[in-house]
Amino acid sequence: MARVLYIEDDFNNRMLVKRVLLAEGFEVHEAETAIVGIEMAQNDPPDLILMDISMPEMDGVTATQHIRQMPTIREIPIVALTANAMQGDKENFLEAGCDGYISKPIDIDTFADQIRQYLP
């Protein structure tokens, strides 16, 4: 069973993603801030990190850059999961160190398959 860490400040988004992934057999852990998410990833590395981009305190791009500098967790795939869908956003997230990009709102029928693409 793949372990996913979802770093997202919005409770409703966390609940939706968690429900969809749990129904597909994933183990889901949640962090409501990037700082807490980074700490969770260091203490118990997941198989994949879903990263919201727009968060208070530390945004997802900055969090991704921090993770990529940490030897023990730098290889974990990170997928930007964000409503930021302007032209060039995807490229910016990939350049910042994300391995993939999924826009919100998610398609609950295809979401789990999209996630599986990024798992080792």
Give an overview in words:
The protein has helices at 11-23, 34-43, 60-68, 89-95, 111-116; strands spanning 3-7, 27-31, 48-51, 78-82, 100-103. The chain is of the alpha/beta class. It has one domain: Rossmann fold, CATH 3.40.50.2300. A five-stranded parallel β-sheet has the order 2-1-3-4-5, sandwiched between helices. β4, α4 (89-95) and β5 (100-103) form a beta-alpha-beta unit. The mean pLDDT is 94.
Give a quick precis of the structure.
The protein is an alpha/beta fold and 120 residues long.
Quick one: how many beta strands?
5
Mean pLDDT figure: 94
Our measurement of the CA-to-CA distance between the termini, rounded to an integer number of angstroms, reads 12 Å
- What are the low-pLDDT stretches, counting only 5+ consecutive residues below 50? none
Helix-strand sequence: EHEHEHEHEH
Strand order in the sheet with the most strands: 2-1-3-4-5
Residue fraction in strands: 15-25%
CATH superfamily: Response regulator
Task: Identify the notable features of this structure and list them briefly.
38% helix; five-stranded parallel beta sheet; 5 helices; 5 strands; 19% strand; alpha/beta; Rossmann fold; globular
